[in-house]
């Protein structure tokens, strides 16, 4: 009957020696349960799979880190399908800590019909539509890789999967997991620990924070402020209207497409300089100080994505655009709740909301929207506001099973999940390089990824109008994936081709 009733799926027989650990409130959400992720890192060198697996085995054999080998389990008769994990007391061939699969092709990567289209760096000066990340699914995941949370709940399957695809001069290292396992910064802690053991630096592996307890359980119980967006909280009637509009969007515009866009370093630098200049000019004209005006690359990317949508989707001039930026908690909760001396491998993030009007996004310089994003982070990105918002979310989840939403019933939601702070492009797998093997590019072998992408499998909702930023590569380029209506991508491509043709004629 699953998933059409509240009955739990049939789980494997319980193992009495397993340690049963409940998921935290932030891990066990409907969105996290509905979303499975596959991450691919392209290395332009040959990595030794044995070294990769031996170091990962060593990490997950540690008493605290073995938590990552736990199995996902569903409680039988509790509200909102509460989920937990069952951690084996040891791992072996019958019950491994992670699933491992491998493909090998005895050709160079540029000779493979599919892998030859995987990006590796970019030398352009303007944003470019590079690839459809789903074209590479056959290389980044095994056929047995889960496609639904039920695949974890009904099998004695580890949450973590490793799939290595080897070529004569390159390697794809691919990781799969359910979003209930961790967020981007939790994944960063995992990769740091893995690469530390790969390099023989065992002393740099941090102990886990919260092996069988949830350190975040009480930090927001007594908020000191009222959440500033509380007056914008949607009522039940507004939520119904908002939900019906989402349903209509997916029903009426069935065709969608996911594309990876590269934002070149020179473009980001130039656009940020122009945005800061426009904000300073506006502040000066208003008689306001200009010395503290600041924009991050993330502010620019958020504003760029919002403007891109506003120019190619039929937003009303006065329609609210709700820009939700994923916001990590670890810095705000250090050092008292989440000390930096320990790795917190779980979800610890929510959203920062910025509200814009469709007309102003199109008519105003990009710096206007970027400045609004920065102001929202200043206003809502404090410890006190975090505690207030999380308290409201937890209360709503307990009462309804759904988080609160803020804005209005007819707003257009745009989501940005920026992984740049996780610095995935800086993860160094050099100790696994096979000596003397050919390498795909460059004058010497480099053990850092030249391209990173993620593909999400969503069981209960669309990932449309969400921008996922994999990070900044070694050349300073940002890689952004987004899913849009197919005809919107057609419109964007046409506009970009026209602009590129105009530039060639002009030059």
UniProtKB/TrEMBL annotation:
<keyword id="KW-0808">Transferase</keyword>
<dbReference type="Pfam" id="PF02458">
    <property type="entry name" value="Transferase"/>
</dbReference>
<comment type="similarity">
    <text>Belongs to the plant acyltransferase family.</text>
</comment>
<keyword id="KW-0012">Acyltransferase</keyword>
<dbReference type="InterPro" id="IPR023213">
    <property type="entry name" value="CAT-like_dom_sf"/>
</dbReference>
<dbReference type="InterPro" id="IPR051283">
    <property type="entry name" value="Sec_Metabolite_Acyltrans"/>
</dbReference>
<protein>
    <submittedName>
        <fullName>Uncharacterized protein</fullName>
    </submittedName>
</protein>
<dbReference type="GO" id="GO:0016746">
    <property type="term" value="F:acyltransferase activity"/>
</dbReference>
<comment type="pathway">
    <text>Secondary metabolite biosynthesis.</text>
</comment>
């Amino acid at each position: 009957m699953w998933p059409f009733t509240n009955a739990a799926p049939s789980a494997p027989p319980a193992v009495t020696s397993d340690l049963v650990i409940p998921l935290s409130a932030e891990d066990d959400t409907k969105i996290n349960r509905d979303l499975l992720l596959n991450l691919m890192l392209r290395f332009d060198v040959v990595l030794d799979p044995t070294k990769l697996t031996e170091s990962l085995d060593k990490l997950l054999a540690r008493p605290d880190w073995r938590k990552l080998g736990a199995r996902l389990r569903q409680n039988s008769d509790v509200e909102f399908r509460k989920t937990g994990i069952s951690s084996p007391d040891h791992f072996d061939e019958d019950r491994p800590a992670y699933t491992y699969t491998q493909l090998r092709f005895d050709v160079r990567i540029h000779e493979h019909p599919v892998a030859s289209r995987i990006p590796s760096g970019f030398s352009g000066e303007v944003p470019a539509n590079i690839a459809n990340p789903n074209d590479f699914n056959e290389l980044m995941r095994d056929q047995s890789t889960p496609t639904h949370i039920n695949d974890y709940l009904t099998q004695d399957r580890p949450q973590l999967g490793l799939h290595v695809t080897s070529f004569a001069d390159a390697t794809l290292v691919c990781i799969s997991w359910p979003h209930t396992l961790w967020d981007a910064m939790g994944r960063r802690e995992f990769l740091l620990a893995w690469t530390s053991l790969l390099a023989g630096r065992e002393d740099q592996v941090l102990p886990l924070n919260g092996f069988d307890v949830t350190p975040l359980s009480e930090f927001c119980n007594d908020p000191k402020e009222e959440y500033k967006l509380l007056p914008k909280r949607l009522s039940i009637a507004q939520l119904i209207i908002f939900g019906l509009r989402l349903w209509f969007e997916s029903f009426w515009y069935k065709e969608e497409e996911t594309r990876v866009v590269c934002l070149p370093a020179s473009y980001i630098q130039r656009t940020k300089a122009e945005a800061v200049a426009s904000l300073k000019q506006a502040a000066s004209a208003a008689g306001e100080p200009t010395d503290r005006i600041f924009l991050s690359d993330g502010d620019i990317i958020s504003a760029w994505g919002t403007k891109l949508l506003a120019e190619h989707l039929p937003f009303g001039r006065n329609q609210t655009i709700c820009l939700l930026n994923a916001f990590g908690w670890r810095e705000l909760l250090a050092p008292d709740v989440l000390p930096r001396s320990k790795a917190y491998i779980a979800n610890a993030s929510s959203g920062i909301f910025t509200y814009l009007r469709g007309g102003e996004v199109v008519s105003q310089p990009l710096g206007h929207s970027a400045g609004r994003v920065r102001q929202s982070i200043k206003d809502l990105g404090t410890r006190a506001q975090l505690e207030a918002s999380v308290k409201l979310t937890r209360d709503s989840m307990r009462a309804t099973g759904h988080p609160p939403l803020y804005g209005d019933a007819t707003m257009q939601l745009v989501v940005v999940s920026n992984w740049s702070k996780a610095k995935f492009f800086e993860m160094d797998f050099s100790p696994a390089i096979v000596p003397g093997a050919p390498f795909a590019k460059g004058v010497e072998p480099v053990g850092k990824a030249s391209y990173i992408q993620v593909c999400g499998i969503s069981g209960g909702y669309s990932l449309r109008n969400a921008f996922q930023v994999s990070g900044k590569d070694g050349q300073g380029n940002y890689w952004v994936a987004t899913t849009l209506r197919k005809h919107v991508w057609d419109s964007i491509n046409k506009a970009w081709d026209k602009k590129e043709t105009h530039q060639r004629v002009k030059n």
